[in-house]
Amino acid sequence: MNVLPACPACASVYTYHDGLQYVCPECAHEWSDTAPASEDESATVRDANGNPLADGDSVTVIKDLKVKGSSLVVKVGTKVKNIRLVDGDHDIDCKVDGIGPMKLKSIYVKKA
């Protein structure tokens, strides 16, 4: 009999296979049934063009971004220097000239 893996989020044993992924009915977590090629490759942060980013890189904003809680806008073409990569949805921690420290999503920048 084929043994299914336990859920990595809640450790439930009631997982099931759905197409190309596993699903946990208890916490609704879904994950791929194929293992990533390597841990470093899956954890790499990439810009909008698919280029890998690293700490200390300079990036350019490719879309006007409203600053939450303010009337300020980070304009397209703004160059941000010396970025720092962090975990989470907003994976770039930086300081934007004229605005201050903020977090950006990597999908809205390109490597300069």
UniProtKB/TrEMBL annotation:
UniProt xrefs under Pfam families: YjdM, Zn_Ribbon_YjdM
Family statement drawn from the similarity comment of this UniProt entry: Belongs to the YjdM family.
Ranges for domain Protein YjdM C-terminal: 45-112
InterPro entries (alphabetical): YjdM, YjdM_C, YjdM_N
UniProt-listed Gene3D superfamilies: 2.20.25.10, SH3 Domains
Name under which the protein is recorded: Alkylphosphonate utilization protein
Protein species of origin: Halomonas dongshanensis
Domain of life from the UniProt record: Bacteria
Record-annotated Protein YjdM N-terminal domain positions: 4-32
